[in-house]
Design goal:
This protein has about 270 residues and is an alpha/beta fold. It is built from twelve helices and eight strands. The chain has a single domain, classed as Aldolase class I (TIM Barrel, Alpha-Beta Barrel), CATH 3.20.20. Strands 1-2-3-4-5-6-7-8 form an eight-stranded parallel beta barrel, surrounded by eight helices. The chain binds pyridoxine-5'-phosphate.
Length: about 270
């Protein structure tokens, strides 16, 4: 299993003061040292965390492959094409959202996504699509020519949180999950089945399969048991833990969880 570390929230912290500290570029070197396989970041249209300059500096560092998440906005895509990262992941974007809500609608934007995919692949840049697990979205992802899909684990993660924490008793209750507690377990199990089925279908079609969103140190186990998933992109939980333990340690802990071989190596030490 490969780990892409999403470093957006290092920039979120920087933007709280609009200065140049902490610098997301420093995180790239730490992630490499800690055993991460890839840096993932989201260049949003509103540049609310990562800026163009961050992308340029991180790309130039060349320490780890760079996976840039972005919307299908032409201005952003033109910039990223020039940067030439190893992969783009197309995501839906909505200015009001706190984080990426729901997967990309590949069916509704078929022609546009096919054109973007063609252009990026012609420039030897891999294309991944961040989608929900519906079969029509998976099939459309294959038909537009993407090499990879990243399955949206947000619903799964939210349900895990509601079942295993006291979140529903705080002011941060997740609105979309205001369902009777007795039904949460069923929805949770359904969300795992749909990720499992989606991953199987995507692999069968010849797509590589990644997953991400809301994954943390407590909810990974069922996802790790889906053999078709080869990569996880994880951000918020790692950056949150790093506040208390340091970034290198937070990434190493995640690496230990998701890579059995590293776990064995750790035991032997
Ligand atoms: N993958 C994609 C496509 C995302 O949009 C995000 C959030 O930016 C992540 C993974 C990481 O999600 P989280 O920060 O919840 O781990």
């Amino acid at each position: 299993m490969l780990l892409g570390v999403n470093i957006d929230h290092i920039a979120t912290l920087r933007e709280a003061r609009k200065i140049n500290d902490p610098d997301p570029l420093e995180a790239v070197f730490i992630a490499k040292r800690a055993g991460a396989d890839q840096i993932t970041l989201h260049l949003r249209e509103d540049r609310r965390h990562i800026h163009d300059d961050d992308v340029l500096r991180i790309r130039n560092s060349s320490v780890l492959p760079l996976n840039i998440e972005c919307s299908i906005n032409p201005e952003i895509l033109e910039f990223i094409l020039k940067i030439s990262p190893h992969r783009i992941t197309l995501v839906p974007e909505n200015r009001q959202e706190v984080t990426t809500e729901g997967g990309l609608d590949v069916v509704a934007n078929f022609e546009r996504i096919a054109e973007i995919t063609r252009t990026f692949r012609e420039h030897c840049i891999e294309v991944s699509l961040f989608i929900d697990t519906q079969i029509d979205q998976i099939c459309a992802s294959k038909e537009v020519g993407a090499q990879m899909v990243e399955l949206h684990t947000g619903t799964y993660a939210n349900l895990h949180l509601m079942l295993n924490s006291n979140l529903s008793y705080t002011h941060n209750t997740i609105e979309s999950l205001k369902i009777p507690r007795s039904e949460l377990k069923t929805h949770f199990l359904d969300s795992i089945s749909s990720l499992r089925d989606g991953a199987k279908e995507a692999k069968w079609l010849g797509l590589e399969v990644a997953a991400g969103h809301g994954l943390n140190y407590h909810n990974l186990a069922p996802i790790l048991q889906i053999p078709e998933i080869i990569e996880l992109n994880i951000g918020q939980s790692i950056i949150a833990r790093s506040i208390f333990t340091g970034l290198e340690s937070a990434i190493k802990e995640m690496v230990k969880l998701i890579k059995p071989s590293e776990r064995n190596a750790f035991r032997l030490d």
